Amino acid sequence: MTDLTICITTHCIKTENLSQTNLWPNQVRSMPSTILIETILKDLFEKTDLEIDTKIHIGFDKRKDRDIDNQYEENLLKLQDKYPGLKVIVHESESYDPQVTMPASFTKLIDSVETKYYMFWEHDWLFIDKIRISDILTEMDSNNKINWIRFNQFNNNNDFMPLIAEKFIDNDIAKIPLLPCIRWSNNPYICRTSIFQNWWKTFVYVCLEEGGQMEGAVCVFFDFYVEKQGLQKTLEEFKCFIYGKWNDTPTVHHLEGNSYT
Measured between alpha carbons, how far is residue 96 from residues 50, 93, 114 in Å? Predict the structure, then answer.
């Protein structure tokens, strides 16, 4: 069995009150059906070499005393019949705002992991092509210069937004293709569990900067490290990378869960 847990975050309806999308009702149309979760799990096991008994922890950002959330939780639990390693990690809150609930829900999910690595996957992402996760884990097992590997949604360059530290690209850093990353993200990634549980978790707070939620909070502290220690030292400490070579095409695709049915 792979020493990795697939961690999936999910929700039904959330309404942001603190950010630029104030009062926008962010609703997943397929809820309370689990069709979205089933779609991404099917894709993961078809396009990777992960085994069907790989541990799967679904972090449900649940709203208290709401019927659709109760129904969705019941349906998520039914997936255990097909996936024996599946658990549902529920964080229940009276707040509808993910800026408030997501930090605690995310932290509870990652704290539930007991494997050496976790692969983070929001509930509406797919791999574009087949990929060997075992090759990535083998490299991380033997290479302590890597903590976190993000899969690219856009071409591997800085045309869309600055993500890669071009000055510090080192083709000899690993046997797999990696580029130094300067922005933490909730896009799909693989991480050493101990790094989040023992270090990055301490960065998490209700944050409206840098896009808010989890990404914003960690990015705020990454930028603070850069300001105080410089980029090279920060890269050496955080050990964050994007999978692939310079100008490689995207590895993952965003389904837009709010419109998926």
Answer: 34, 8, 29
